[in-house]
Design a protein that fits this description.
single chain; mainly alpha; 7 helices; membrane
Length: 191
């Protein structure tokens, strides 16, 4: 049961990494500093105040950069592999000690990295559609939704991990349907 709980928390955190790379890591760091979360062996660095401060600065810079026109699209190029790595690390940091090291890393890469990549690719597509259809005017609305989504998912991952898994699946399905609908409305839109 502990393994399933850890994977559910990991799915929520990795999905949040798909929205914003640093927000879930900052939430994990704050939670570990407050004593609400104990990272797995090898991830104790999350509980260091200096790491928490660094993640806070990185989070503010990342959120602010997504409000700069055209920089948001350029950041998606860097954020996609970064989200996969962050999702993998977040899942590994909450994984259960019941699994072998190999199984833990395999699950973290597949579940965490895969979830973060799927969510990140959905946001890249949504931003691309927004840029083409509105000239980027609606991109700040998308950016706001992404960082709020990352924060809410990160916190809920610790409070309601099973609910978050269902929520993540629903969000991904909704995003895919929304993107397909927009693409069908404007068939010349490149994705």
């Amino acid at each position: 049961m502990e393994t399933i709980l850890g994977l559910c928390i990991g799915v929520g955190l990795s999905a949040a990494c798909g929205f914003r790379v640093f927000v879930p890591l900052l939430v994990m760091s704050v939670a570990s500093l407050m004593g609400w979360f104990e990272p797995m062996k090898g991830f104790e660095w999350l509980a260091m105040p200096a790491v928490c401060m660094g993640l806070a600065v990185a989070t503010v810079c990342e959120i602010a950069a997504y409000y700069i026109p055209w920089v948001d699209n350029a950041l998606d190029t860097v954020s996609t592999p970064a989200a996969m790595i962050a999702g993998t690390l977040a899942t590994m940091a909450v994984s259960s000690g019941e699994m072998s090291q190999f199984a833990s890393w395999a699950a973290a890469i597949i579940v965490g990295g895969g979830t973060a990549t799927a969510v990140q690719m959905s946001t890249v597509a949504a931003r691309g559609v927004s840029t083409v259809t509105t000239g980027g005017i609606a991109n700040p609305v998308i950016s706001t939704g992404e960082w709020i989504g990352a924060l809410v998912l990160s916190v809920l991952s610790f409070l309601l991990p099973f609910f978050v898994v269902v929520l993540v699946v629903c969000i991904v399905i909704w995003l895919v349907r929304r993107i397909r609908m927009k693409r069908n409305e404007n068939p010349a839109t490149p994705l």
